[in-house]
Amino acid sequence: MEQSLDLNIKGMSCAACVNRIEKALTKNGAKGEVNLATEKAHVTFESLNLSPEKIITIIKDAGYEASLTAEKKEAKEKSLRTEKISIFISALLTLPLVLPMLGFFMLPPLVQLMLALPVQFYFGAHFYAGAWGAIKSRSGNMDLLVAVGTTSAFGLSLYLMFTTHHSHLYFESSSVIITLVMFGKYLEKRAKAQTTKAISLLQELQPEEALVRRNGREEVLAVGKIILGDEVIVRAGEKIPVDGKVVEGTSEVNESLITGESMPKGKSSGDSVTGGSLNGNGLLMIKVTALGSESMLSKIIRMVEEAQMKKAPIQRLVDKVSAWFVPVVMIVALLTVLITGFITGNWETAIINGVAVLVIACPCALGLATPTSIMVGTGVAASHGILIKDAEALELMHSVTAIAFDKTGTLTEGKPKLQKIVSEKLPEKDVLKIMAALQSGSEHPLAEAVLNHAKENAIDFPRALDVKALPGIGIEGLVEGKKYSLGSHRLLKETKLPEEGFTRSYLVDESGLLAMVDFSDEMKANSPAAITKLRALGIRTVMLTGDNESTARKISSRLQIDEVKANVLPHEKVSYIQSLKKSGGIVAMVGDGINDAPALATADIGIAMATGTDVAMHSAGVTLLQGNPLLIPDAIEISRKTFNKIKQNLFWAFIYNLIGIPLAASGHLSPAVAGLAMALSSVSVVTNSLLLKTWKPK
């Protein structure tokens, strides 16, 4: 049986570390996706051969720490403070070694050695630990480059100190490199913390306690102790602690931090509310309907975390390059030493040039280029109500060429109203009674319209027996011992067309047609603007609906949709999506119902409205929390901006190394300057990714 496991990893320094962990897992029969930016690993394995404890041991043997529990915020802050102090002390010890470069007097060699020793072997100890782990696994990483480079400079200084009594030594190079790289990694960690801010904000939304009414008594309980069916009291201005339904009270609720919707929504008895949203100026009594991992907030956090964990297809190519990066740099550094030494005869300069090559090469920037962009992109999208399920969906979204829409609940409100009943055989009241009985257990929008109409007209209806769904057609069952069918025109040999813009259902028994029922469904206010934006982006639009031809044509003409297919069954939607894919390009499908799930899964990218069913959301790569079609072009825009950031980051990471390594090899960069450049390269990549945080939907 296959199991999956999410682990927190400590000790990674660059993309080569990612490769090392993944190779170690593969070698032992597991599959792992390791993310340098989040410092997490998603591992799948067969439970017969492996266990979580064994997986952790495998990663530990590869030279890294792994744990099931995430490092707490306080522990991370303490770790950063400790690093800051270490950098400060290391800089104090390094500064006197640098003073001669600024025109001050040269320190005696022994004093230089005493200042450089703690920097090299105490503050730089973690570089040696990382390098030793790389050597044991016969691979390379940034730690190995820094350790070999600084040890070479330190060793050369010792050699010159004891053999030639040089006053000019290179202790300052080794100390400056270690101090600057430490400073660069510190800045990188701080910047990376900003990339996960979206999740942190979501996690902080849920209050820790709630006022609960049980058995007529009110008491304050920890949210973890609340059970389904409890009644929670939320005062004005308080955060709603749980998902539930309002049973008493009226208020306006601000859901902006969850859905991105800026306008508060009115809530009264019977309305659903989401944990983490902010209550306005009214008192609400809420009956709990979902807890823990089943709450909307938990699902959102989980989706964002999973999206940030997974690798984009382009990252796999980068990982392959990174696997060869360190060995190639080591060879280039060795060739630099040999060629410079033999040509000039100055082996001291040759070694220093080789050190500069080792130090300026930066696999960190390559490793961070893609995941940091994805983390910020998915995070900022989530803050505006666009949930992106994985990195592949984010990468594909930017190149969508065609979008197919379901109609009901996607382009229309999905809340149809029963307009009229036409019957020559039965009174309207009897028709409504039979329909309500058949549809009492259905969640279909038309069923809801029937039940609401029955409620408004105080119609009592019996329980239907042997109820069966007729996929793509309707429903059938026994009402008071008689068999009835309710559904689309497919129930009849001949169809009486509804008025344009109406959806028609037919009630049938063994004798034939009993009644025709017309429904209307208002178009969403933002649908026309959404289609106009998509057309401006050069994207072909298609509407696939099970509704009748006249209604479909009316909606599509108002929206100026490129193509419309009416009377389409669920499996026909799948076939049409497949034909669109065969014609080339990337195809997205937008839907909200159970019948849309197969088409959502078939499309290159499924886009689900969160106002629809969970099945649709699980089948989709992107979920729109507001059910607002204008978020579709917004999702394409954030995808394009994120992918552009990835390309920018990779360009600069490659260019940096392509320019920097030859300059260092030719002696045009000192090891100290090379160390500064290396320290800032990964910081610049993360900072460039953080610019995505300024994005807002248009």
Compact summary:
The chain is an alpha+beta fold and 698 residues long.
Question: How does this model look, in words?
Answer:
By secondary structure, the chain is α+β, with helices and mostly antiparallel strands. The protein has five domains: 2-72, Alpha-Beta Plaits (2-Layer Sandwich); 74-197 and 305-375 and 643-694, no CATH class; 227-290, Calcium-transporting ATPase, cytoplasmic transduction domain A; 391-412 and 523-620, Rossmann fold; 417-520, Calcium-transporting ATPase, cytoplasmic domain N (3-Layer(aba) Sandwich), CATH 3.40.1110.10. The chain has 23 helices and 26 strands. Helix 11 (313-344) packs antiparallel against helix 12, helix 12 runs parallel beside helix 23 and helix 22 runs antiparallel to helix 23 (671-690). 48% of the residues are buried. The mean pLDDT is 83.
**Structural category:** alpha+beta
Instruction: Give the CA-based shape.
Output: elongated
Q: Which ranges are low-confidence, i.e. pLDDT below 50, for 5 or more consecutive residues?
A: none
What do the pLDDT scores average to? 83
Euclidean distance between termini CA atoms: 47 Å
Number of E strands: 26
Number of domains: 5
Q: Supply the number of helical segments.
A: 23
Give the biggest beta sheet: 7 strands, mixed
Any idea what the radius of gyration is?
A: 32 Å
Strand line-up across the major sheet? 14-26-25-24-15-22-23
Percentage of residues assigned to helices: 40-55%
Strand fraction: 15-25%
